[in-house]
């Protein structure tokens, strides 16, 4: 079985749910305390054993590249003012992994963005981390997907149950339990943004998938799907119908950073555990919660 070494982070979406800020700042660069959202994705991939990461961007997202690069100006400033801890931190981020960037050129959907990565991936299995889904977990979710792939030898999609009335915003999977597993299902069909009555279940793919390189030919042949976009779910549905994929209900709390509420909630969680401001922040939030009750 081939080792999983590569990951793609599609981050070229326009982020219309995060307007007006996303008009000038990519949503993937919005801060969770003092780190941009995309940092957490790269960190999760690296902690899962990934060596090469391709971030799919567009012409307005150059600041993402700068974040993972050295900066001569900051280096000399921090060195001359003896701020070695800060300097080490910046260098550690730049050296986290081999991070590459590729522009999508046209915003034609998540499937289209993934399709741009064919040359980077070659014929290896690979992970996709959706650029606005941040998941905090004990074991990195990518690692959970890799472990499942190694168990069953087929593509894996990370899923969570969502309230039935919200399934229409996501996708819906047709599944049956796998004997001997508490959190894995065999999935043989799925549908993106189902209309009422089209739902298979309330299990939806949230943010992480592990795919085989066969997906690229499928994506290339896809017509536009829901919303007029090339949908990754439509490509994965073909794999599911032909051979089946594993749906893994992962452990972890997921935040949709493409939404205002998700961004704020992720900030509260990380601020409360932050080594510099955590204690003060918790005091503030508890005090604030009391005021809200009145
Ligand atoms: P979303 O649909 O959540 O992102 O796509 P969006 O289009 O930016 O969101 P809204 O609805 O306008 O607010 C899921 C992921 O796929 C990426 C996005 O950046 C996001 O991380 N994506 C989406 C691309 O890379 N390219 C696309 O053409 C579309």
Write the layout of secondary structure elements.
Blueprint: E1 6-10, E2 31-32, E3 35-36, H1 37-47, E4 52-57, H2 62-67, H3 72-80, H4 84-94, E5 98-103, H5 110-115, H6 118-121, E6 126-129, E7 133-136, H7 141-152, E8 156-161, E9 171-177, E10 184-192, E11 203-211, H8 215-220, H9 232-242, E12 245-249, E13 253-256, H10 260-272, H11 278-293
Parallel strand pairs: 1-4, 1-6, 4-5, 8-12
Antiparallel strand pairs: 2-3, 6-11, 7-13, 8-11, 9-10, 10-12
The structure holds uridine 5'-triphosphate (UTP).
Uridine 5'-triphosphate (UTP) binds near residues 56, 104, 107 and 131.
Strand content: 15-25%
Small molecules in complex: uridine 5'-triphosphate
Main sheet properties: 9 strands, mixed
Total strands: the figure is: 13
Unreliable segments (pLDDT under 50, ≥5 consecutive)? none
Number of discrete helical segments:
11
Q: Based on helices, strands and strand pairing, what is the structural class?
A: alpha/beta
Give average pLDDT, whole number: 95
